[in-house]
Structures are given as structure tokens and as C-alpha cells.
What does this fold into?
Amino acid sequence: MNPQVHQAVTSESHTPSNRPEDLSPLLVIGSGDPVMRGYCLRRAAHHHPVLLIDSHPPTWQRAYIVDHETVDLRDPLAVMTAADSLAERWNITGVVTWDEYHLLTTARIAERLGLPGNSPYAVLAARDKALSRLRCSVSGVPSPRASWVTSPETAANAAEQIGYPVVLKPTAHAGSVGVTRVDSAQDLDRGWKAASAGVASQGPEGHGVMVEEYLDGPEVSVETVTDNGETTVVAVTRKRLGFAPFFLETGHTVVADDPLLETAAPVAQQALEALGITHGVSHVELRLTDRGPHLIEVNARQAGDLIGELVLHATGVDLARAAADLACGLTPDVKPTRRAAAAIEMFYPAHEGTLTSHRLPPGTSDTAMERLQWLRKVGDDVTLTPSSAHPNNTRLGFAIVTGRTAAETQRAVDDINRRIKFAIRPAMPN
It folds into this structure.
């Protein structure tokens, strides 16, 4: 498959014939959704000339790029060919992605072009949950008991050995697609159907289903920056989950100097080392059990759900810029400059159906609000659980609030939840 070559048509664009000799751009693989990932491209472009390889010709991205190619991002060979084509025209200084599904291709491009980055094997170890569990178990990282299975029968045997409740999840998916808790053998068929449906469209880095010990306790993520094997823990994100037996993230809070840093940071650093992650910004998910923090998974890229924005509001550390700088072989500035708190609250439908109205009447907490964003428009069908076909239909919108403390942001979140109004016409039964 030959990539389509396009030159961006903006006033800031540079062509190979007139570019400055010292212009060494950053290559971005997949810009992502402009609402949830647009800030990553914007921050990268503020400090580096940017080249883009994406699945569609650029629209909103044009203001931030100097050149691009359009290929099917699901085709690694096509992406590699596009990268080679851009490398012929530009002196590429780094390559980065913030998309979970393009991590391995990005690592291979970095290796091929001799650019900074994680080894493909380390990225594979993070993407493939079965390999990740194995490497972390060998390295003594506190982790749930787990088994890799390929059939309902082997899933049932694994669940009996581990002990209920268990969690079933696709081996190489993301975004909570197919992840479900199973409390008894009677519920296993339901859990298997949810997980195996996710398997059908998961990334090629893994196959099958993981059956894992359910870890009871609060969930957090650790946001890290790793430079030449040295990991700095920047922040802990406290998560709010809902809609059991699924694990939908309903909100996140980041507080500067969170006391959980002391206990969560060592496990995150240990997990990154076990997988061989030596480079970049990572998002490490943990459960705080009565036996201490235990690893859920390592995501070798920037966090989703605008957590990078929360970290910036709370600490002043710009993880999007850090990822871009690291990709270009630069040492990022991760020194905190703020002592504050920030939170994001997601709005979910009460039931499946069609969204008929949504609004947020004015209130006292509006002074704390940094951003209000509706993700679904009136007339859209909405669902309660993420699926491969409709991974984003679960959320109606979100609000980001800031304050001096976690308590201040929580009061603002509670006030917004009391005021938010939306109506959904129930789906008609089949």
C-alpha cells in the first residue's frame, strides 16, 4: 500500500526546498481525537516542528504541522513506508504517539530511524497483558494472580483456581473495552461474552483473554517520566469508577504532593523496570489493596481522559511537552511549579437510548470550572458500556474543575453533578 503524500497548506508550513537547515521536526503517529488528545499535538507543536502520519487528511491538525502523510494506521507496513518517505524529506529528530494501538509501530520506527525510544520488545511487554503479567511476576512486582485463556472452558478452570471474584479482559485492548468483573461461576458466561467480544477487535500485540484475581480497593494511576532508564514520578491520579460489573472511569483527581506518592511510586517504578521501559511518559494503573499497591497494567504512553491537563493544572508539569522532548532526545523539565488540585468528572447516561436534551444551569461552582464539554449531541444514541463498535458512546460529556485542595475540587464536582440535566429516550426493545 503506497501512502498518499500531502503538504500542509498553512502560513507556517515549510517545504523541503525552503526549510531552514536546523529545522528537525518531531514525527507524530496518529493525532487522535481533537477534544481528548488535541492538547498533546498543540503542546508538541508549540515547541517542535511537527510531521504527522494519520488515517485521514488533516483538518484541525493543519495549524500544528509542517508536513504529513495519510495512510491506514492499522497497517504497520504502510505507516513504516510513510515514515521512510518523510525521513527522505526531513531530518526527523524524534517520533512519538499517545495512542495505545500505535505504540509498537512507533517503537519500530524509532528503532529503524535510530531515534530515541523504547525497544519494540519493551512496548510489546506493556501492550500484551499476558507477557506483562509474566515479566512482572518474575520481577516480583505486586500483581494479581492471572491466567491467559482462549476458551470458556479454560476460563472457567482458571477462575476456579484463582477464586471468585475474578476480572476478565482482552489481552491487548484499551479503554475498558471488554473488561468485566465476574462474581461466580453462574456469571462467567456473561463475562466471557463481554471479554471475547472485545478480543475480536483488540490490537495485534496479543490474543485471547486474561482471567485475573479481582483486587479490592481504590484505583489510582501513577504518571511518570522516564529518561534513559531513570523514572521520575510526577503525580498520582485518584480515580472514580462506576457501573459495576464494568470498570468505567467516571472521574479523576490530581493533587500536588499527594501522600499516595510515597507508597504508589515504588511499585510503578518497579513495573516499568520489569517491562524494560526506559523512555517516555507512562501511565501506570494500580489498586490500593489491604496488602499494599498492586499493579493493574502499564500503559507506555500519556494518560487519556485529559489527565495530562489535570497534572498541568495541579503541578505545573507539562507531560505532553515532556513526551515530545523525550522523543527528540531532550531532557524534559519535570520540576513542579504549582501546588493545587484539579479534577475531571464524566457524565454518563442513566440508561441506553437517544439523547434528547442536555444542559448545565449556572451555579456557584462555575468559578472553579476550567472547561465544560459535551461529547454527544441531541439525537445521538448513547450506551452504558464501551464496545469496539461504540467505544465513546458511553459518555455524554465532562467538566474540568480546579481548586487549592482536593476537597475544593470535590465540592465543585458534587455541585455540578447536582445541577447537570439531561434527558434520554429509552431504547426500544428488539
Summary: The mean pLDDT is 89. The chain has eleven helices and 20 strands. The radius of gyration is 22 Å.
